Amino acid sequence: MNKDLILLGHGSGGKLSHQLLDDLIIPTLSSIPQAGQNDAAVLDHGGVRLAFTTDSYVVEPIFFPGGNIGSLAVNGTVNDLAMMGARPLFLSAGLIIEEGFSRIELGKILATMRQAADSAGVRIVTGDTKVVPRGKADRIFINTSGVGAIEHGLTITGAGAKVGDKVIVNGTIGDHGIAVLAKREGLELETDIQSDCAALNGLVAEILAEGEAIHVLRDPTRGGVATTLKEIALQSAVTITLTETALPLQGAVKGVCAILGLDPLYVANEGKLLAFVAPEAAERTLQRMRRHPLGKEAAIIGEVTAAGAGRLQLETAVGGVRAVEMLAGEQLPRIC
C-alpha cells in the first residue's frame, strides 16, 4: 500500500483517521494534545467561555429515511457544541454544489436546514456557496460551523472519565448507519429503519442539571459507540467495560448487521450521546433522560472499571470478556 495516498478509511473516524490526525494534521496545524481533542474547542474570551466547532457532510444518498444532508449538517454541529456542555447559538452554512444539481432538491435541503435550526433554537447567520463543474463533486457537500455559550462552571471533556463512572446511552444504537445503508443499497426490509438524526441540546440541558456528576458527553457518530468509547478511554487513561446484554438495539438493525457481517458497535449514530456519570447520580440521570423524548430508551451500558490503561472491553453475552479497538478501516463510507 502506498502510504502517500489518502484512503476512504482516513475519513472513517477510526484508527486510520486518528493516524492521519496524529501524524500530519494536528502536528502541522495546532499541536493539540490527545487529551484536548474534543468535539469542539473551548475558547475563553475575557472570562466568557465559548465552544466553537466545524464539520463537513458528504452523506450518500443525500435523502434518507429520517432526514437528509441538510438536517444532518445542522443537527450534527449543534450536537458537537452540546457535547461540550454549551448552549448552541449560531451556525454558518457552506455549500459546495455540483453543476446540474436540482434547484428543487436544493430548496428542500435548505428548508430542512431552516426547520432543524429553528427546532434546535439556533440561527444560521452566515455562509458561502460555491458551484463546481460536473464530475468535480458528488451533487452537494455541506459544511457547518457553530458557536455556543458555556453558561456554567462545569468542564465537560473526553479526558474527564473517572473510575466508577457509569456509561449511559440515550437509546438504540446503529440506527442512522443502517438507515443510510439500506437506502443506498436498495435493501428491502420488513421494517423501515429511520435515521436517529436529531439535535441533542435539549436533552443535554436536562442532563447538566446533575452538575459536577457529569464528566463526559460525546456523540458516537463516525466509528460508532466502540470507536468513541476507545477515544475516551485513551483521553482519560482508563479502562471502560461494556455489557453486551445491556446495549439497546432495534431488532431490525441487529438483523441487518447479522446478515451483512457488521458490528453495530461500529455503526454511526446521529441522535445518540454517551454520558459518563458519577455512580451516585447515574440512576437519577438515567431517569432524567428517559423523561425526555430523545431518551425514552436510555440505558446504562457499562462503567469505568480501572485507571491507567486506555482500554475498552466488552463483557459478552456468553460470559467472556474481549478487547474492543477502534474501527480499523472504512465500514460504511459516506455515512455522514
UniProtKB/TrEMBL annotation:
<dbReference type="InterPro" id="IPR036676">
    <property type="entry name" value="PurM-like_C_sf"/>
</dbReference>
<dbReference type="InterPro" id="IPR011854">
    <property type="entry name" value="HypE"/>
</dbReference>
<feature type="domain" description="PurM-like C-terminal">
    <location>
        <begin position="162"/>
        <end position="314"/>
    </location>
</feature>
<dbReference type="Pfam" id="PF02769">
    <property type="entry name" value="AIRS_C"/>
</dbReference>
<dbReference type="InterPro" id="IPR010918">
    <property type="entry name" value="PurM-like_C_dom"/>
</dbReference>
<comment type="similarity">
    <text>Belongs to the HypE family.</text>
</comment>
<feature type="domain" description="PurM-like N-terminal">
    <location>
        <begin position="38"/>
        <end position="149"/>
    </location>
</feature>
<dbReference type="Pfam" id="PF00586">
    <property type="entry name" value="AIRS"/>
</dbReference>
<dbReference type="InterPro" id="IPR016188">
    <property type="entry name" value="PurM-like_N"/>
</dbReference>
<dbReference type="InterPro" id="IPR036921">
    <property type="entry name" value="PurM-like_N_sf"/>
</dbReference>
<protein>
    <submittedName>
        <fullName>Hydrogenase expression/formation protein HypE</fullName>
    </submittedName>
</protein>
